[in-house]
């Protein structure tokens, strides 16, 4: 089935048809004058991933004029509520169990639940001036209901839409929604934007690029200058050379590549800071087995999910990023730069919009263990080079990825659609 298959229109029509009988015709869109619009933010996950960390400051900024609707519960709800954000949870186990790389039959089996969720979200959306969808499932459930709620839909795209991560049916549905149901798309990188434009088959398809913003103040770690004390506080070896890899444990994030490189760097230690968030627990077990097989288990520290990322990054000598496929953005790379640590990253996707090789970081080919070993050895053996990259990286990150600039750009985009 190709993205242009006409049966996709039938699927969309069926969902809308099931819902129309249950929801009265929406009122005309509200006229927005001087007052900022009210916004319903929709996110599929209760976990704390990159998309959720991007939404958090925006939802906090919009707290007096908006609400976040989560399609599953978890620590993200707690984080939002602690920031003063109003949150609703509308979880449906049948829908949340459908993975984005699932076959079409999994989606078809969840069809009744999807239709019901579309109608439920539409009812909520009609209380707001604008709907902001922050993930793929949120896009499907929020944008399909546009005929029912009649509100403008803004989509913040956090993915490179390709067959590497998405099935044909999912891509076909996303293409239809992008062309017919979304009023404005914001992408977290040029790489993400270009993949969507390619998917739509319309070279002139408009996408606004807004990179994630990082709060530089959060990286002013009080004990960062006393690294030994900081490491003691975190339970890390005080005198070892530490490379830190931050991100969820998943095969495409490449933790196995980092372990293979570590085996060729005697004396170096690796901190894996992240958890298996979306069912990748077998991969986590494989990493433990790999560390044992390579004889490096005593030099690998599985830290799990780290709530205080600035402190953990400040405790490292270098930050490594080892994704084997194109990264939509690379938030942890910017965070490593904010922490003033030299960053080694794979040169694909949005990463190349962040790192300039040899100036503010070091780029390696995705999956290339030899290049990763050489980069880690070079920065371990030349602390002055590492410090120079770190200092330039911090300056570039503060200039190019500030939280204030991010909030201004996102607010402007929301305002433009709401007019």
From TrEMBL:
Q: What CDD domains does the entry give? A: GT4_PimA-like
Q: Which Pfam families match?
A: Glyco_transf_4, Glycos_transf_1
List UniProt keywords, sorted A-Z. Answer: Transferase
Q: Which InterPro entries match?
A: Glyco_trans_1 (IPR001296), Glyco_trans_4-like_N (IPR028098)
Where does the Glycosyltransferase subfamily 4-like N-terminal domain start and stop, copy by copy? 49-216
Q: Where is the Glycosyl transferase family domain?
A: 227-395
List the coiled-coil residues.
none
Source organism, top-level taxon:
Bacteria
Q: Which GO terms describe its molecular function?
A: glycosyltransferase activity
Its name, as the record gives it, is Glycosyltransferase Family 4
Q: Which organism is it from?
A: Paraburkholderia diazotrophica
């Amino acid at each position: 089935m190709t993205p242009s298959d006409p049966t996709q229109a039938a699927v969309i029509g069926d969902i809308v048809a099931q819902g129309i009988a249950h929801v009265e015709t929406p009122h005309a869109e509200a006229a927005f004058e001087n007052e900022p619009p009210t916004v319903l933010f929709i996110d599929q996950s209760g976990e704390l991933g990159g998309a959720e960390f991007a939404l958090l400051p925006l939802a906090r900024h919009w707290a007096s004029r908006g609400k976040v609707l989560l399609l599953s519960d978890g620590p993200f709800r707690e984080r939002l509520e602690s920031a003063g954000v109003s949150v609703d949870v509308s979880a449906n186990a049948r829908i949340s169990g459908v993975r984005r790389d699932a076959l079409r039959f999994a989606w078809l089996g969840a069809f009744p639940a999807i239709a019901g969720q579309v109608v439920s979200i539409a009812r909520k959306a009609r209380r707001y001036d604008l709907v902001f969808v922050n993930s793929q499932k949120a896009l499907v459930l929020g944008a399909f209901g546009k005929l029912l709620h009649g509100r403008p839909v803004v989509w913040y795209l956090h993915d490179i839409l390709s067959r590497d991560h998405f099935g044909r049916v999912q891509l076909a549905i996303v293409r239809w929604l992008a062309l017919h149901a979304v009023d404005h798309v914001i992408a977290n990188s040029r790489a993400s934007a270009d993949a969507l434009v390619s998917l739509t088959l319309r070279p002139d398809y408009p996408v606004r690029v807004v990179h994630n913003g990082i709060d530089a103040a959060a990286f002013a770690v009080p004990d960062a200058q006393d690294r030994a004390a900081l490491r003691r506080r975190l339970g890390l070896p005080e005198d070892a050379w530490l490379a830190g890899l931050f991100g969820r444990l998943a095969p495409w994030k490449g933790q196995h590549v980092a372990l293979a490189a570590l085996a060729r760097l005697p004396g170096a230690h690796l901190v894996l800071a992240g958890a298996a968030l979306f069912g990748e627990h077998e991969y986590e077990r494989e990493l433990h087995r790999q560390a044992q097989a390579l004889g490096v288990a005593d030099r690998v520290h599985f830290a799990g999910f780290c709530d205080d990322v600035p402190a953990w990054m400040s405790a490292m000598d270098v930050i490594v990023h080892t994704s084997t496929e194109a990264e939509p953005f690379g938030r942890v790379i910017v965070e490593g730069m904010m922490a003033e640590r030299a960053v080694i990253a794979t040169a694909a996707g949005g990463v190349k919009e962040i790192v300039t090789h040899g100036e503010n970081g070091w780029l390696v080919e995705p999956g290339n263990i030899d290049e990763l070993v050489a980069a880690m050895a070079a920065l371990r053996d030349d602390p002055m080079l590492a410090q120079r990259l770190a200092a330039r990286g911090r300056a570039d990150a503060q200039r190019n990825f500030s939280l204030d600039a991010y909030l201004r750009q996102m607010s402007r985009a929301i305002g433009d659609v709401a007019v």
